[in-house]
Design a protein that fits this description.
Largest sheet: none
Distance between the termini: 95 Å
Shape: elongated
Mean pLDDT: 90
């Protein structure tokens, strides 16, 4: 083998350090949940409008947007992500359960 056909090892090479794979995984989970939410929540709103609900009303839009974010918080939690509304969702769940128990007691 002659010296003319030997490739020398690069001395100034510094390999790219991979990013934290957990961050990539979380970003992929978030993108997936957001894609699912975008698809189904639009379909649900359209179906509700077709069923006669006034989906263009300001009150409906406000309430529906809160519902969408609560469902997003639920789905984020189900894939191991944090969402700002998860603590609120926990508190609301306790209130809903208590209201149902109170309603059953009254009947």
């Amino acid at each position: 083998m002659s010296a003319n056909n030997v490739v020398s090892f690069p001395t100034s090479y510094s390999p790219e350090v991979p990013k934290d794979l957990g961050e990539d995984m979380d970003a992929n989970k978030m993108a997936f949940v957001d894609e699912v939410m975008g698809h189904y929540m639009v379909q649900l709103a359209n179906q509700l409008g077709t069923s006669g609900f006034h989906i263009a009303a300001d009150e409906f839009i406000y309430d529906y947007s809160v519902t969408v974010e609560m469902l997003r918080a639920t789905l984020y939690r189900s894939v191991g992500l944090k969402h700002a509304l998860q603590d609120d969702l926990d508190e609301l769940t306790v209130k809903v359960i208590q209201a149902r128990l109170d309603q059953e007691k009254d009947t």
